[in-house]
Design brief:
Length: 115
């Protein structure tokens, strides 16, 4: 495709594929802890797995290359309001999700087994 476009414009082109970020692979042994902390924070009915894998890039994968962890998403939408896209200048999320995140992290710490 690149060569075809370049030829059509009477020029040359090359394409380089660069490694971006590693995949996010949760530490399986920590998933029960993460789920329990989420359940204690918002209740069992509000904790749900993603319906399908998300193939988007996420720099959290860089952290998981060095330390164990679990990637968790919080619902930060505002009912009846287009919140825009995350990581954009139009993102307008529900700031109450910040408190949910802080409470969740507190529950993770309280439930983490002592060393």
């Amino acid at each position: 495709m690149v060569q075809g476009l370049a030829t059509s414009f009477n020029t040359t082109a090359t394409i380089d594929f660069l490694d971006s970020v590693p995949p996010v692979v949760n530490t399986s042994s920590l998933i029960p802890l993460a789920r329990a902390a989420a359940t204690n924070t918002v209740g069992k009915e509000a904790v749900m797995p993603l319906p399908k894998a998300n193939m988007g890039a996420e720099d959290f994968g860089n952290y998981l290359d060095h330390v164990p962890g679990v990637f968790v998403r919080y619902g930060a939408g505002i009912q009846g309001h287009d919140v825009g896209g995350a990581h954009t200048s139009t993102w307008d999320f529900n700031e109450e999700a910040l408190m949910v995140g802080a409470m969740y992290l507190s529950n993770v710490v309280l439930q983490y087994p002592p060393a």
